[in-house]
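User: We ran a pulldown and think these components assemble together. Before we commit to crystallization trials, I'd like a predicted model of the whole complex to look at. Sequences follow.
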Amino acid sequence: MSGAPLGAGRHLLSVADLGAEGIEEVLRVADAFVEVGRRPIPKVPALRGRTVVTLFAEESTRTRLSFETAARRLSADVMSCPMAGSSVKKGESLRDTVETVNAMGVDAFVVRHPSAGAPAQVAQWVDAAVVNAGDGWHEHPTQALLDCYTIRQVLAERAGTDPASAGTAGFRGLKVAVVGDVRHSRVARSLVWALGALGARTTVVAPGSLVPTSFDDWPLEAVTHDLDAVLGDVDVCYLLRLQLERGAGAYLPSVREYTSAYGLTARRAALLGEGAVVMHPGPMNRGVEIADDVAELPASTVLRQVRNGVAVRMAVLFLLLGSGGAVEDPAAGGAGD
Amino acid sequence: MVPVTDAPGADTPPIVVRGGTVVDATGERRADLLVVGDRLAAVGPDLEVPSGARLVEAGGCVVAPGLVDLHTHLRQPGAEEAETIETGARAAALGGYCAVVAMPNTDPPVDSAAVAADVLALGRKAVCRVEVAGAITVGRAGERLAPMGELAALGVRLFTDDGAGVQDAGVMRRALEYARGLESRGLPVVLGQHCETDSLTAGGVMHEGAWSSRLGVPGAPAESEELMVARDIALVRLTGGRVHFLHLSTARSLAMVAAAKAEGLAVTAEVTPHHLTLADEELAGYDPIYKVNPPLRTAADAAGVRRACAAGVVDAVATDHAPHPPEAKATTLQDAAPGMLGLETALAVTLDALTGATAAPAMALGAVLGLLSWGPARIAGLAVDQGGDQGGPLVAGAPANLFVFDPEERWEVDPARLASRSRNTPWAGRTLRGRVRHTVWRGEPVVVDGEAQR
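Assistant: Here's a predicted model for the assembly, 791 residues in total across the polymer chains.
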């Protein structure tokens, strides 16, 4: 593996492995790829000849398309392996599937799986780089990275500075509320650790039945069940998706009761301080965790998060697979070739 | 080498086990043992070796009554790709065991006299004594009582729906009351409970706590076990019945057992070698080898289980030997089968846990062997004074069921060299201390110098 070190390792399995330096590095490289995204032909040859496989044992159109777009913009060859269907039904084990695909000559696996730890297991079985694209309730590291990128971008815009020169200094002391089903959320587990590494002060806000059993060692400022009490004093209000399709409803008396206590309604949005940012990883349950009119407010960064997702995933793939020397100018080469 | 016949004990030449230290329920002494047929003919220092006798060297070793495992999954019938009665018994003999109780969660389950008779018949060809536990309920479904009387008439003494707990308190109450009736008819049976409250553990794949919360893995809380322990203690009080708690894994479960015993209730408890030694943090790498039910608890629980052993609360260490084929473990944590091998490593792991540096306080060797041999023999109804042949003191006239081990020998666990048909040991590549040299069962040297003889 010739990739530049991404944090400590040659995989991206947990955001906790990156540390502040690793996160900063991804954000810095992503800056260059955001610029690439604005070009008429948004493509660079950085990963030409490399093969990236997306292995999704759980359907997620937006994440898969974002990774595949990122890989293609880096000129990598992309194979898509939807595990939810064929091979699993034929009784092939995850390990057999992975080893078979690996034998075709693969440089990176992007793995989404309903079982926590599956990407870490895949990393034991193959010599390719492995990127965790969401595993059970565990982590979704690239989501946290793109969220951090978005926060950094917004902070720089407000300060009228260049995001690249600002670095991640703006995260120090930043007050973030992560609201919703933290118990079952891989997004929360990655985001909390990323924010912790960068020095933010994170508060988890959730109904009693949707907090994890333990917060031991979590880098948190506080855990509360009262959203109204914290809204007036946050810089970022991050709303998690209530995953009703996965039975989150069984943890609540009703969705209506959730919305009345934890939904960001227009009334609640008015409690937010001036300049507070509203974020959501998508897809949104409009009218549940976020009111329709709030989602459309200028404070909401939802679409910007999606846009930044491609650049951040380009950065991750580039750092894992690109030749070390090119880090200085990953966007070199242009699209003219 | 003197050839060994197939029929246990029959026509084998006399054996002299020479130079070892005998440790049994009566204490510890230097002695040689003369085995003639399936009995000990003489036990004492510097015995003369009769001509034609086979010498089994035990210098520097401990000679003890054969171990008894109350909790073995032999997988036959139904999952012979994982283990058979033949291979499981061989693994047992290599681990120092002279008797195992096969769990009834086979396919079909042991909920009828016909299946029990089949398992017992296959067991008669094995290299250790194979007893079988019967299901408490038909199909282990927790609803209707299995034919406990018919099974007991075949010699079944332990009943359990292991793999699942009896969820319905009313069903468990009826089973306890019915078992009492059998006892008064001369069929002394005990109900073994797998303590797990399904509504609290649904979907759980590891202990619920700090590690599961961080790892994002669905958890099974300690309280799932503790609720059923508390409930069954109450039912024993109500019915006057007897309950044996299988594989208890939390410090609080054992505290409840201690209180119930102090009250005079007829409860016994077993713990496993892995719950004495391993904790939930082993799952940090998501390796399914560490997925087991009940799950590995916290390090504090493991220490609590060790303390309960030292305090005399625990009656037996049982392996919960649970073989699985490689494909059942070469998958995600979510999908992997729960369970780990135990028979060939239990002695070394238990000795280290209860007499080594992490023991609190360290137990005497004899007390630990009691948990592995004469303690479980009594619960299984196999003790000598119960009419059985297991776990008794090694004295002249006693059944020749014994094993010899070197308490100091260090060995690295190589899964490929295990006699079990499966390889799912959490101890792979680790170095253990204490190794079985020889096992003599019904007068037959079934293991000699660490090699199975048939």
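Residues 324-328 of chain A have pLDDT under 50 and may be disordered. That may be worth checking against your pulldown data before setting up trials.

User: Thanks, that helps.
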